[in-house]
Write a structure and sequence with these properties.
This protein has 233 residues and is of the alpha/beta class. It has helices spanning 41-49, 71-77, 94-101, 110-119, 121-125, 136-148, 166-180, 193-199, 217-222, 224-230; strands at residues 3-11, 16-25, 30-34, 54-61, 64-65, 79-82, 154-158, 185-189, 202-207, 210-216. The protein folds into 2 domains: 1-78 and 153-175 and 182-233, P-loop containing nucleotide triphosphate hydrolases (Rossmann fold, 3-Layer(aba) Sandwich), CATH 3.40.50; 85-151, no CATH class. The longest helix has 15 residues, at 166-180.
């Protein structure tokens, strides 16, 4: 696998929030991390990004051990992250947000900005507008586009559809499918489990900080016990 985390255990100084959690995602693949509130989903993602120190476990990127790398070094290695909140600069224009995301690029960044305009047509239309004036779904598109400005091999998304309408959720998931076509590994934490599994190649379900179920999207969608416990019937 291109990106993997094995047997991650850690927390915030007290009891462990995650225990022996493992995840894998390859390039050109969408993998979802699902589970009830408090299951440790976002904590696991922070651990993989290096925001949270783990007491045990191993993280690999393209067969290289990055367990001891700082967050900034992981980003330089090819990982990009979109947090659930505070993920754009509201006082800057949409284009300026993209420029801020290009801090690792050398030379002229216009080509990459044009790629984002093509991938997210709304961004081109709103490029001169202050990001703080956008709707929730539009802000999320800007946040994802800004994360893509570093040319990541792995894109990590924490609740990309939180707080948006079903129509906007569908639009965001469609954008994520288009990102997958660029041979990027997409790892996302999602509360909308059923819809996330419909676009995911594989998924992991956490319960009380541990891997409870894993498998391809269709398997998890159609398993009766999983449907009853986590997908609402």
């Amino acid at each position: 696998m291109y990106f993997s985390a094995k047997n991650l255990t850690g927390g915030y100084g007290g009891p462990n929030i995650i225990e022996d959690c493992s995840f894998e995602v390859n390039q050109g693949e969408i993998v979802s991390i699902l589970g009830p509130n408090g299951a440790g989903k976002s904590t696991a993602m922070k651990a993989m990004l290096g925001i949270l120190n783990i007491s045990s476990g191993e993280i690999n990127l393209n067969h290289k051990d990055i367990t001891n790398l700082k967050t900034q070094e992981r980003i330089k290695s090819g990982i990009s992250f979109v947090p659930q909140i505070n993920n754009i600069f509201t006082e800057l224009t949409v284009r300026e947000n993209l420029e801020m995301g290009a801090f690792l690029l050398e030379g002229n960044i216009q080509k990459k900005i044009n790629e984002m305009y093509q991938l997210f047509p709304m961004i081109k239309e709103k490029k001169d507008q202050f990001a703080g004036e956008l709707s929730g779904g539009q802000r999320q598109q800007v946040a994802i586009a800004r994360a893509l400005m570093t040319n990541p091999k792995v894109l990590m998304l924490d609740e990309p559809t939180a707080g948006v309408s079903p129509i906007v959720m569908h639009e965001i998931f469609q954008h994520i499918l288009n990102i997958k076509k660029q041979n990027i590994a997409v790892l996302m934490v999602e509360q909308n489990a059923r819809q996330a599994l419909e676009i995911s190649d594989r998924g992991y379900i956490l319960v009380t900080g541990k891997n409870a179920y894993e498998g391809n999207g269709n398997y998890l969608l159609n398993d009766k016990e999983i449907r009853k416990s986590f997908l609402g019937g």
